[in-house]
Amino acid sequence: MKDERNSGFEGLKVWQLAHKFVLKIYKLTKKFPQDEKFRLIDQLCRSASSVAANIVEGNSRKHNREYVQFINTAYASLEESKYHLLLARDLGYLNSKNYSELIKEATTISKMLNSLRGYLLRVKS
Asked: Residue 61: left if φ>0, alpha if ψ -120 to 50, beta else—which one?
């Protein structure tokens, strides 16, 4: 496996999937009730976008140890997003089909973050 920073963040498959995840969430939250704008919508969009943003920021770091810290933060933000999706489903703002699809995508991203973290811990920076 080559150094993941050489191609820039746009070349990272995990970033590409995380970015698509964010775009889907932004699209779906437009259908949420307006009174959730500064509550659940804001929290969900922030946590989801934090996943992709932390991948980008970690990718720009010089040392793998720093990169791993940002991958850990991305993972935590992804877990937070999963909870917000569960809440949205349970409040009736998100149907079961959309919920299942997003959770499946989040699980894939999670596995990829774990693989990237493992790779970064194995190689020297």
From this structure: beta
What phi-psi label fits residue 94: left (phi over 0), alpha (psi between -120 and 50 degrees) or beta? beta
Angle at 123 between CA 8 and CA 55, to 5 degrees: 35
The dihedral formed by the CA atoms of 7, 13, 18 and 24, expressed in degrees to the nearest 10: 120
pLDDT band per the 50, 70, 90 thresholds, residue 79: very high
Q: Domain 9-122 adopts which CATH fold?
A: de novo design (two linked rop proteins) (1.20.1440)
Sequence ranges of the domains in the chain? 9-122
pLDDT given for residue 8 in this prediction: 87
56 pLDDT above the threshold of 90? yes
Residue 6 has a pLDDT of: 52
Residue 72 is encoded by which pair of tokens? 């850990």
